[in-house]
Amino acid sequence: MTLAFTQARLRAMLPAISLVAVLIPILVMQPAVMSYFGSSLLLNLAVPIVLATLAQLAIITVNDLDLSIGPFVSLVACIGATLLVKTPWLGALALAGCVLAYAAVGALIELRQIPSIVVTLGLSFVWSGLAIVLLPSPGGTSPTWLGAAMNYQTPFIAAPIVWSVLIAIIGHLLLMRSSAGVRVRGAGGNPRAMRRFGWSLVRSKATLYGVAGVFGVLSGLSLLGLTTSADANLALRYTLLSIAAVILGGGEFVGGRVSVIGAVLGAITLTLAASFLAFLNISSDWQVGMQGAILIVVLSLRVLLQRGERR
Amino acid sequence: MNTIADNNGSAWSRIKAIQAPWAWSFVGAVLVWFAIVAIFGFGIASNVAQTALTYGVFMVLVGLGQMLVITSGVGNIDLSVPSTIALAGVVGMHVMGGVNGNIVLGVAAALGVGIAIGLANYALIRMLRIPPIIATLSSSFIIQSIAITQGRQLPPPPPGLGAFATGRFLDVPYIALVALALSIALAVLLHRAVYGRRLSAIGQNARAAWLAGVDVHRTRCLAYVMSSMIASLTALLIAATSGGASLDMGVEYMLISIAVVVIGGTLVAGGKATIAGVWGASMFLFLTNAVLNAVGADAGVRSIVYGVLIIAVTVAAGGKAAR
C-alpha cells in the first residue's frame, strides 16, 4: 500500500525529476547558467514553448490532438509582425478571429464527431497558407510594446522563469481548481456521463479549443517579441514539441488526465534538452536524434513506474 | 456495421454503400481534369496527366503505407515516413554506388532499412506502450540523425535506375505501373487474404479481434513494417526521378500521406481501407495543385485550398454516431 502510494507520487514527480536530470549536467558543465543572465539566456525561448504546450494541453484534455498549433503560432507571429504594426485594430481583429475560428473548429469536431487529427491537419495547411499570404518572405517587425514586454527585466529571478511559473500557476488554478476546469476535464474523462448530466459537450469542446487559440495567440506574440521578426515557418516544430511536452509532463492521450504544472515542466525540459546537447559538444548531426532518444528514455521511465503502480 | 440494413436495402443503397467512400475522390479528380481540358486545351491536359502519373504516384505510394497503419486501429499513425524516405534513399544510393549491377542489392538494402524501421517503430509502441504518434515521432528524430550522418558524398542513382524512373510503357510511366502492381497486390492482401480480414478486425475492435483469436500485435506490427517498406521503395523512386537522394526529399509527404488516405475515404478510426480512394485522392490533390499553379495562385493560396479541402471532405463524410 505504502509502496503503491510512493510509486504514484514518484510518477507525479517524474516531470520534475526529468527536469533535474537535464538541469544538473548543464549546471556541472556550465556553472554560469545559475546566474541571472545565464538562466535568462538559456530559457529565453521557453515562454512561447510553454504557452504553445498549454494550448496543446487544452486540446488533449478533451482527448483530441492539435496538429496545427505550430503553423498557428507562426501565423500569429506573422499577423503580429505585419497587421498589428501597420493597423493595430485590424491586427487585433484578425487575432480575435483566429481564436473564434479555433472555437468554431472545436464545436464542429464535436457536432460532426470527426477525428481531430484530420481536421487540425487540414487547419495546419490553412494557417500556413494564410501566413505565407501575409508574409511571403521572412521579415516584418515586432510592435514596440511587445518587444518591451518580452525584454522586461524582472528583479532577482530571470524573466522567463517568472513568466513560466506565473503561467503554470494561473493555468493550474483555471483547469484543476475551478469548477469550469473540472467540467471541461470531465468532457474528456467521461463524455457520456457529462452529457447525461446535461452539460453540453459542444460547449466544452468549443471552450477548450478557444482557450487553445488564446494560448496559441499568446505564444505567437511572445515568440515575435523575442525574435522581433516573423516567418511563416517560424514555429512549425512547436506542434510536435508541444505534444511531447504534454506527454512528458504526465498527460495522457485519453481520459482528461493532464497536468498543467507537469506540462510546463515538460516544456522547459525540452527547451533545456536542446542546450544540454549543445553543451555536450555532440555533433550537430546527432542533436535531433538525441532529442528523440531523450523522449524515449523518459517515456520508458514512466512505463516502469506505471508497472510498479499496478502491482 | 453495415450488415442487415444494407442487405435488405435496395440495390441502389447497396451500390451507394459500396461506392461512396472512394468514388468521390475519383469524381473530384476527373472533374478537375476536365476543368483543365476546358481551360487549357487537351494537349496541356494530357501533359498534366502524364506528370500526375509520375509525381502524383509518389503520393499514392506513401498513402498506401499510411493507409495500412491507419487501418490497424484508432490512434495508429506513422509519422516516420519522411525520415524513412531520407534514410532509405541515402542507404540505397550508397549501396548502389552509381553502378547498374548493384541495383538489386541497393533495393534489397533499402527494403531492409524499411523492415528495420517498421520493427523498431512497433517495438517502441508495444514495449514502451507509448501512443504511436509519439513513438514514430521519436524514432523519426533518430532515423533523421542517422540519415544525416550517412548523407554526405552521395553517389548519383545508377543510370539504369534513372532510365527506369523516367521510362514509359505505352505512355504510362513505369513508376505508375509499379504503384499499380503494388496496389493490386495490396488489394488481394486486404480483400482476399486472411491478413486483410485480420487487419480490418483489429481496426474495428482490437479486443473483439483478440478474443476471436487474432494475433493483434503481429498483425499491427506487419502494417508498420509494410508502411516503412513502401516508404523505402518510394524513396528509391523519388531519388531516381530527381537525379539523386536528398535528406529532405520526404518532408512534404508526412502530411500528404495522411491527407490522401483521409480524402480517399479510408476510415480514420481504422478498420476500413480503400486503395482506390488513395489513388483518387492523390490524383485529385495533384491535379488541384496543378490547376492552382497554372492560374498563378501562390504557395499560400494553394496551401489554404488544400486545407479547406481536407476539412470539407472530413466534415462532409462525418464521423461515427455519438456513443
From TrEMBL, chain A:
Locations listed in the record: Cell membrane
A Pfam family the protein falls into: BPD_transp_2
GO molecular function: transmembrane transporter activity
GO cellular component, one term: plasma membrane
Source taxon at top rank: Bacteria
Keyword line: Cell membrane, Membrane, Transmembrane, Transmembrane helix
CDD domains tied to this protein: TM_PBP1_transp_AraH_like (cd06579)
Topological category with respect to the lipid bilayer: Multi-pass membrane protein
Primary localization: membrane
InterPro entries, A to Z: ABC_transp_permease
Membrane-spanning segments: 12-29, 41-60, 67-85, 91-109, 116-136, 156-175, 206-228, 234-251, 258-280, 286-305
Statement: the UniProt record of this protein carries the keyword Ribonucleoprotein: no
Protein name as annotated: ABC transporter permease
Organism name: Caballeronia grimmiae
